[in-house]
Amino acid sequence: MQVHHVRIYYEDTDFSGSVYHANYLRYMERGREHLIGCDELRRLWDEDGVGFVVYKAELTYKEPARFGDALEVRTTAERTSDWRAVFRQDVWRAGGSQPLVEGRIELVTVDKAGKLVRLPEGVRTAIDAQVASRTG
Hints:
This protein has helices spanning about 25-35, 40-50, 120-135, and strands spanning about 1-5, 50-60, 70-80, 85-95, 100-110, 115. The chain is of the alpha+beta class. It is globular, with a radius of gyration of 16 Å.
């Protein structure tokens, strides 16, 4: 599991003082970026011509985060095929007893023309290793 820490700033909140719902997608994106690695994402695009796109996003909001909160985006990944990766991304208040937001994000990879391509072998291997470490 990869944990990405997020501090909630005033700009993240709406008129009620709660985090604006769409901002959780941004926090989850950062969590995936940290899991895969910035250098690898850039290399995949620059050298292999492959990038990730969101195929499906499901979020369940349980409780709002507020200005000043320290959050954790907890990310795990699995492959459902050679073409699709699913990221389970839950957002927790640091020290909390339950997630504030539960997320399930499905990604696919495309080439520079936008055509669907297989997940790169290195990505498949890394995801499979993460799954094995959780279950082993």
